[in-house]
Design brief:
With 381 residues, this protein is α/β, with parallel strands linked by helices. The protein folds into 2 domains: 3-127 and 302-330, Rossmann fold (3-Layer(aba) Sandwich), CATH 3.40.50; 128-296 and 336-378, Dihydrodipicolinate Reductase, domain 2. It has 15 helices and 15 strands. The protein has a 9-stranded mixed sheet. Strands 3-2-1-4-5-6 form a 6-stranded parallel sheet, with helices on both faces. The longest helix has 19 residues, at 360-378. It is globular, with a radius of gyration of 22 Å.
């Protein structure tokens, strides 16, 4: 039996998910129906991919259709309520990122999810399916590069022109998506950071808007603090042409460098403390081995054909429902990245070091104040 899947929200990413299901790219699943409040979105999908049962109200869809699972790919602010409603209706759910805009709401979603252990519930952390990222996580968790001493992350390959923002709608505003570059594009990298090296305990951040007529950030600099005086320098922007995406994790016994979808792993014959204690003159030296890792050909072809990382998460979601796999990104693992986003925003807004997690109620209060100021500036009632 194939898993019958409905897609709620057929904008850019929702269309890709629905297309992959409709064209049979997700083995063991079929597209049962789609839902979107915008008639033109449904019309655009059916015109390109053929007739499919459609709705403009997801509650009616769930009442009328016999479906097993739902993919939620609406605008950010709707994720939490829709996911909770679908869970209440006994449906397996895969939510697009971010799981919610605020950590406080994410916790309420997880609370509802915990009442239904029989359901498969996941979040779209598709970059976890990248072989490079999985191997990096294993190397760190298995202690192959020793105790972590330094982390640097540059995320500058999400270029967005003014034309992108001029499309309007929910893009690049607090009232529409809960922030800018950080919550829209770079939330993926924040998940990878905490997934590979763990959740930091505090952050100090600055945000800027450079070269774009928008009300939110397109440039972020953050300094994450980990235990034992370990820090991660995080720099992200969407205004840099052909920018880099580079993660470097330095440990006592080695170093991991991920760039351009490839990873180099340097391992040392001795750890730094041994080299330091044994060196009696001069600077000190150690030999090293270098290994390289990248996408395998099969995965690269899938990526080119059907957004391989996203499709891989959907396949994993479907196979977990069928009992043949375990989830790569369970729903509750959507929370840490949202906690980091909230902490960065609060730190930048209040110009102070901010603990992670933040006080959820306080963050929502400040966010509402910021939204009111933004709407007043934009003349939105």
């Amino acid at each position: 039996m194939k898993v019958k899947v409905a897609v709620i929200g057929v904008g850019r990413m929702g269309t890709i998910h629905a297309r992959n299901l409709k064209l049979g790219h997700i083995k063991g699943a079929t597209l049962a129906c789609i839902c979107d409040i915008k008639e033109e979105a449904i019309s655009k999908f059916t015109k390109k991919y053929g007739k499919i049962t459609s709705y403009d109200n997801y509650k009616q869809m769930l009442d009328n259709e016999s479906i097993d699972a739902v993919i939620v790919s609406t605008e950010h602010y709707f994720h939490g309520d829709i996911v909770k409603y679908c869970i209440g209706k006994g449906k397996h759910v895969l939510s697009e990122k971010p799981m919610t805009v605020t950590a406080e709401e994410a916790r309420s979603v997880i609370e509802e999810a915990n009442k239904h252990p029989e359901l498969t519930l996941a979040v779209m952390w598709n970059q976890r399916t990248n072989t490079v990222h999985k191997r990096a996580r294993d190397l760190v968790r298995d202690g192959k590069i020793g105790k972590i001493k330094r982390i640097n992350y540059i995320v500058a390959d999400w270029y967005r022109s003014q034309a992108y923002y001029n499309q309007g709608g929910w893009r690049a505003c607090l009232w529409g998506e809960g922030g800018g570059t950080l919550i829209n594009q770079c939330v993926h990298q924040l998940d990878l950071l905490q997934w590979i090296v763990g959740l930091p305990k505090a952050v100090e951040a600055k945000m800027f808007t450079k070269g774009r007529n928008i009300t939110v950030e397109n440039d972020v600099i953050a300094l994450f603090e980990y235990p034992e005086d370990v820090y991660c320098s995080f720099s992200a922007n969407t205004h840099e042409l052909r920018g880099a995406n580079r993660l470097e994790i330095s440990g006592e016994k080695g170093r991991i460098v991920i760039e351009n979808r490839r990873m180099k792993v340097y391992t040392f014959k001795k750890c730094e403390s041994e080299v330091n204690s044994e060196t009696k003159s001069g600077y000190g030296f150690v030999t090293r081995k270098t290994r390289r890792c990248g996408y395998n050909i099969r995965f690269a072809l899938r990526l080119a054909r059907d957004f391989g990382e996203q499709a891989a998460i959907i396949r994993n979601f479907v196979n977990t429902i069928k009992g043949t796999e375990s989830l790569i990104s369970p729903l509750w693992e959507g929370l840490p990245a949202v906690e980091m986003v909230n902490a960065i925003y609060l730190s930048a807004w209040e110009n102070r070091k901010t603990e992670i997690p933040v006080d959820g109620v306080y963050y929502e209060k400040i966010l509402k104040e910021k939204i009111a100021q933004e709407k007043d500036y934009l003349g939105i009632k």
